[in-house]
Amino acid sequence: MLVAAARAAGTxxxxxxxxxxxxxxxxxxxxxxxxxxxxxxxxxxxxxDLPVGVSIAIADEVAVPGGEERRDAKRxxxxxxxxxxxxxxxxxGVQNYERIVHGPDGEVRVEGELNxxxxxxxxxxxxxxxxxxxxxxxxxxxxxEHGIQTGDDxxxxxxxxxxxxxxxxxxxxxxxxxxxxxxxxxxxxxWIFGYGAQLGLHExxxxxxxxxxxxxxxxxxxxxxxxRGVPTASRD
Length: 236
What we know:
Blueprint: H1 2-9, H2 25-46, E1 53-57, E2 60-63, H3 68-78, H4 80-85, E3 91-96, E4 99-103, E5 106-107, H5 125-137, E6 141-146, H6 153-172, E7 177-180, E8 202-204, E9 211-213, H7 215-226
Parallel strand pairs: 1-3, 2-4, 3-6, 6-7
Antiparallel strand pairs: 4-5, 8-9
Helix pairs in contact: 5-6, 6-7
């Protein structure tokens, strides 16, 4: 895909923030870090009243006995750089969609109902990812993305309330959470998966562009109403 994109763009090589060759990961991380620091300084110099943060995708990495070393290695390789970087920010953005379980010999396949990503549906993954992000960064968390990829909307309608209830319990326990953004309003063109991946609260007719709410849209509306006015918590 990257070779075809380079050819279409008339360049020798092509890379995307969402699809980066393994041998260029460190190069991209260094560049993104410089860009984030420059943007943070520019925003604070111009609008010091605006909170600044960085948002990253975080799976809820958990370990069964003997899997702690593998879990920690995954965290160190994928998330910890940005969570440390966020210590100089006003918040850390968390994008969460799944839980990954680590055992002494690698990832552990957990029994349960699967989502469209092929991983077990686990509403508690959101609270786990939020807790870890705050513990590592020390700053408040903004849930910038959360949802479920599935063609079965009954899964989504059950998943959203359960996940938000778990997040509310985490807030009550003292983890500071600034807000929650669900992904997403409509079934969208999802990166390399195209229109096959369904994450929306509304389906879209690709011929007429008519939008139709799914039952999960009503379930999400109920969640919003039930949590309206609930204060966020802070931890010193």
